[in-house]
Amino acid sequence: MLAHGSVDSSAGSRLIKGNQRLSEACYYAENRWDPQQPFLKPAEAGPIAGRGPPRFGVPCYCSDSTMNLRDIAAALGCRIEGGDPDFEISGVAGMERAGPGELTFLANPRYAPKVKNTQAGAILVSQALPGIACLVSENPYLDFARALALFYQPPRPAPGIHPLASVAASATVGEGCSIGPFAAIGEKVRIGRNAVIHPHVVVYEGAQIGDDFLAHSHAAVREFCRIGDRVTLQNGVVVGGDGFGFAKRADGSHAKIVQSGVTVIEDDVEIQSLSSVDRATVGETRVRRGAKVDSLVQIGHACVVGEDNIVCAQTGLAGSTTLERDVLLAGQVGSSGHLTVHEGAIVYAQSGIGGDVAARARISGSPAFAANEWLRAITAFPKLPELLKTIRALEKKVEQLEKHAKTSSSA
Q: Is residue 382 part of a domain?
């Protein structure tokens, strides 16, 4: 453990290597790049001329190193078809932007005709294609994501506590942690090993955080909240802010209800920028293992976000919404609260959920109902004015026929 407020004096001179296949790494000192020598080999790491020794942090940006197809295939568990195993790949890119030395991918067969126009040197596919070196994969999109990590690793500050960080005397910080300038760690906080806490992150009193935590600038973890291992909070995330609870007085004013519960974030969760997971009034709000929450999402008090959920941007969950495992909420979905979306359900964009959703259902619209019915309804919707005219015309014809029938029968 690092004592509070202590600084690892050797941290500034260490090079964080990242991926071992990268032969070069960038050197960073005091938030400024040296424009004359942006890349330094490990043996050259040291003070930048005229600036003295680095004071805090070194990232591991991608370099100009290459990998041949054989090594990439071995790393991804793919097989090579129609290409030279020694062909050198310098990076990865989308199909339309990839150059002759880059790897691209084809995940959706609908885009197969575009392959003939790509300049890529190789492609990740589920089935081999003629005219291009192929890495045959069971999941091209997933392996494309894995290939990105072979060529790029985000910057990672060196271990240590910056002298401008504020770490309470009673806080416990695990080995290998990096705490950046102007971060604030409150009393009785416990942080596991290898955490990276960027500048201006705030962790309130009594919070407990597991190993390999990553918090970007301006993220906040409120008092007594609990966070598991390998959790990532992007910029501006608030974990455990007060739930929106007020009681109306006789005179019409509102009395705040104390939010005495906590927020619990389980292992392997990532929450994107400017999202909020409110603490419960009593009990807890919980985001379960492996859930991924997009930017600008509001998760209300006492909600449960299930395992491996995907919650897309601008979604709002009112209090006591429960999402079971493998639920997908597309963008701008709203939930009215005190309901359950059962396992495997998919809710399409801009839908309003007003009640429980059955397991593996697909719903859409506001109020939301079965997606296939909604598609038929929304197709008919623009035609309603014309249909109304037709119905009125038919009504007039029916009236005329009825009058004619009555006249004929009386005669």
A: no
Among 4, 200, 218, 301, which one carries the catalytic annotation?
Answer: 301
Distance CA 178, CA 11 (A): 10
C-alpha–C-alpha distance, residues 41 and 58, integer Å: 13
Cα–chain center distance at 322: 20
For residue 359, give Cα distances in angstroms to 292, 325, 341, 351, 401.
20, 10, 7, 17, 51
- Look up 342 and say whether it is catalytic: no
Per-residue confidence (pLDDT) for residue 64, from 0 to 100: 56
At 223-251, the pLDDT tens digits run: 999 999 999 999 999 999 999 999 999 99
Cα distances (angstroms) measured from residue 230 to each of 36, 244, 392: 36, 28, 64
What the block records as the tokens of 383 is: 């035609």
Measured distance CA(107)–CA(127) in Å, rounded: 10
> Highest mean pLDDT range out of 22-26, 46-50, 79-83, 377-381?
79-83
Question: Which band of pLDDT confidence, cut at 50, 70 and 90, is reported for residue 409?
Answer: confident
Looking at the chain, the whole-number percentage of residues with pLDDT higher than 70 is 84
In 3D space, the residue among 73, 90, 93, 94 whose CA is nearest the CA of residue 23 turns out to be 90
In whole angstroms, what is the distance from residue 161 CA to residue 1 CA? Answer: 12
Last residue of a domain, one of 118, 151, 184: 151
Is residue 186 in a domain?
Answer: yes
Residue identified by tokens 């390998």 is 230
- pLDDT tens digits along 280-289: 999 999 999 9
In a domain, 93, yes or no: yes
Together in a domain, 126 and 192: no
Which residues, at least 6 apart from 285, have a Cβ–Cβ distance to it below 8 Å?
240, 243, 261, 262, 263, 264, 277, 278, 279, 299, 300, 301, 302, 303, 304
Residue (of 174, 145, 142) closest to 161 by Cα position? 174
Domain containing 211 equals 160-372
Q: In what order do the strands lie in the sheet with 172-173?
A: 172-173, 190-191, 208-209, 226-227, 262-265, 284-287, 304-305, 321-323, 339-341
Provide the CATH number for the domain around residue 328: 2.160.10.10
The distance in angstroms from the start CA to the end CA of the chain is: 107
Which phi and psi (to 5°) does residue 44 adopt?
-95, 0
- Of the given ranges (99-108, 127-136, 363-372), which has the lowest mean pLDDT? 363-372
pTM, whole model, 2 decimals? 0.76
Checking DSSP bridges between strand 284-287 and strand 246-248, what pairing results, if any? unpaired
